[in-house]
Amino acid sequence: MLIDVHAHFFPERSLRPDWRAYNASRLRAGERIGIAVHVTSTLGTFGLTSPTYFPSPDDVVYGNDFTMALQREHGARIRGYACVNPNYQEHARAEIARCRSAGLIGVKLAASRRADDPLLDAICETARAHGLPILQHIWQGRRRDWPGQEASDGAELCRLAARHPEVRFILAHVAGGGDWRHTLAVAPAQPNVYLDLSGSGVDGGMLEACVAAVGAGRLLWGSDITMDTGWAKLRYLKHLLSPADFELVAWKNAARIFPPRSFPGD
Amino acid sequence: MRIDVNAFLGGYPFAKVPGTSPQDVLAAMDRVAVDEAWVTHLPGLFWRDPTAGNAWLYDTCREFPRLHPVPAVHPGLADWPDVLREAVARGAPAIRCDPCYFALAPSGAEMVALAAAAGAAGRPLLLAVRLEDARQRHPNDVTPELPAAAVRALIRSAPAVRLVVTHADRGFIEEVHFGSTPDDARRVWWDISWIWGPPEEHLATLVRTIGSDRFVFGTGQPLRLPEAAVAKLDLLDVTPDERAAIEFGNAGAARGRKR
């Protein structure tokens, strides 16, 4: 069993004319890697009619509708996060409720607001009420603002997580750029923060450091937009971890933090 | 058979990286079924005289025959022709010069002279575009990335020049390939370490558009997990012959051997 907690499929209304081929490639590679479930989020129209990291309410609805359609079309193979923009508080909370009733299993916060902004508190409370984990886009060790996003780093997410101890947070793509050492210095002290290993990075020593920092019980496997590097890390984890710990990272931790019956065999 | 043309021995100055000894690199090669590796002395790349690491490199490769030395040559140091001659005499499959790390003009007169001399000596010149993701580098690591224009200029500078470029991404490769004459482009080989697989399918696209004969197997280990390059090939739909060419045949072609 293998669960990819950080996947993306592109909808027709996006900046990718090759969206069908892209989605087919993800599914094909997933079969080869052995991914049983892709847990995906759609960030609005990925920049077509509003910015990827600041999706408009209309685009949020469009993207989440697309995620729901994927879930319906692909049965157990695809599960989805409800993507919301916390600047539109009431809309975001209503969207989480709508998506949960349609079967989505988590909340995706991209980079519309800094993770420790009070605007996120109501989102977290809504996620808690529905029993949903929150996947938060993270720039590892952010040293400045980056164009197109109000990115957060691990320290900022941990501050939010401390305010909401009953919510499980997935710190996105530890290997997705920025200094992962910064994240590993802050994450161990916040037990409701789980690290998603996705991203293009395959740095020597990174996985050992992640295991040392938070243990296999708080690591989640994912790929994001580079499945080859995801597979590489999975292969190395098999070498690095005991079989029991490998199972935790491959799927058991995910099965534990998402709502019951989210995945086959749950 | 699988040859890694992009491997290092020794520590990295900007981060603690495990597994940098020859024994560790060989163990990693065993883990991912790499038979042989072209290796460079990594700390030397950051020294004032990068060639000062070559003696240790030659000794180490003599001790571990699966490792082949890719010594550093610094064309800004007066003895560089001797360093190149020694590399040839010791059977180095390639020589290495990373102009940005050595603070040389990437396509300046010194680099042009070295590329021509290496070509005349029957050795490809190996260059890295980068060693780390720019988003995570140490704040004091401000070395610029190798510009694609420099690769185009170097390959254009003399007909005997052959280049092996590592850590390049799709955009870089396309700029050089389609920004060069077909004859020039046939003398550049690209390692696959920094090219994305699915779902972006950059490697598959490049194999289709510029041909599998332009790519060599490279990992960037121990700075990067060697599993990544293997996984990339395992996700690539190519014929067994094409895969074998990428895994070892094209490295021989880069060395001037007939396939």
Keywords:
heterodimer; A: 266 residues; alpha/beta; eight-stranded parallel β-sheet; 12% strand; globular; B: 259 residues; five-stranded parallel β-sheet; three-stranded parallel β-sheet; 10 helices; 8 strands
Description:
The complex is a heterodimer of chains A (266) and B (259). Chain A has 266 residues and is an alpha/beta fold. Helix content of chain A is 42%, strand content 12%. An eight-stranded parallel beta sheet of chain A has the order 1-2-3-4-5-6-7-8. In chain A, α7 (206-214) links the parallel β7 and β8 (219-220). Chain A is globular. The termini of chain A are close together. The mean pLDDT of chain A is 97. Chain B has ten helices and eight strands. A five-stranded parallel beta sheet of chain B has the order 4-5-6-7-8. In chain B, β1, α1 and β2 form a beta-alpha-beta unit. In chain B, α5 runs parallel beside α6 (170-178) and α6 runs parallel beside α8. At the A-B interface, α1 and α8 of A face α9 of B.
Q: Bin the strand percentage of chain B.
A: 5-15%
Order of helices and strands of chain B: EHEHEHEHEHEHHEHEHH
- Count of individual beta strands of chain B: 8
For the largest interface, the chains and their residue counts are:
A-B, 36 and 28 residues
Assembly state: heterodimer
Secondary-structure blueprint:
The complex is a heterodimer of chains A (about 270) and B (about 260).
Chain A lengths: L2 E5 L11 H15 L3 E4 L16 H18 L3 E7 L4 H13 L4 E4 L9 H12 L3 E3 L17 H10 L5 E3 L8 H7 L6 E4 L9 H9 L4 E2 L6 H14 L2 H15 L9
Parallel strand pairs in A: 1-2, 2-3, 3-4, 4-5, 5-6, 6-7, 7-8
Helix pairs in contact in A: 2-3, 3-4, 6-7
Chain B lengths: L2 E7 L12 H10 L4 E6 L12 H10 L3 E3 L10 H10 L5 E2 L12 H12 L4 E4 L19 H10 L5 E4 L3 H9 L3 H4 L2 E4 L10 H9 L4 E2 L10 H8 L5 H15 L5
Parallel strand pairs in B: 1-2, 2-3, 4-5, 5-6, 6-7, 7-8
Helix pairs in contact in B: 4-5, 5-6, 6-8
